[in-house]
Design goal:
The chain starts with a strand and ends with a strand. It is about 0% helix and about 55% strand. The chain has strands at about 5, 10-15, 20-25, 35-40, 45-50, 60, 70-75, 80-85, 90-100, 105, 110-115. It is mainly β. The strands form 2 sheets. Strands 2, 4, 5, 6, 9, 10 and 11 form a 7-stranded mixed β-sheet that branches. Strands 1-3-8-7 form a 4-stranded antiparallel β-sheet, with no helix packed on it.
Length: about 120
């Protein structure tokens, strides 16, 4: 059974930092793109960042470029999102995603709340 389990969310003041983790299990993800998405109340889910598991190539939404960094640990089957200089508009439920042309898996999400 494939599982993506997020952790690391919480309440932080504007300007602070959080590090989200996504523990992946149940299959190999060598061919996958691992990503972070977020959904704020009343808004659609949006892309935040992604990393190709094999190449390590990364992509970021314009709104987080220069503040967030996505990384992976192949040995631990984990993906991370380091979030710095957080803003109130970063408040959302953050989801981990693993996908390729054959599968598309989602975690349950971890809440990030940034107070002003």
């Amino acid at each position: 059974q494939v599982q993506l389990v997020e952790s690391g969310g919480g309440l932080v003041q504007a300007g602070g930092s959080l590090r989200l983790s996504c523990a992946a299990s149940g299959r190999t993800f060598d061919s996958a793109t691992m990503g972070w998405f977020r959904q704020a109340p009343g808004k659609e889910r949006e892309f935040v960042a992604s990393i190709n598991w094999s190449s390590g190539r990364t992509y970021y939404a314009d709104s987080v470029k220069g503040r967030f960094t996505i990384s992976r640990d192949n040995a631990k089957n984990a993906v991370y999102l380091q979030m710095n200089r957080l803003k109130p508009e970063d408040t959302a439920l953050y989801y981990c995603n693993a996908r390729n042309h054959l599968f598309d898996y989602w975690g349950q999400g971890t809440q990030v709340t940034v107070s002003s």
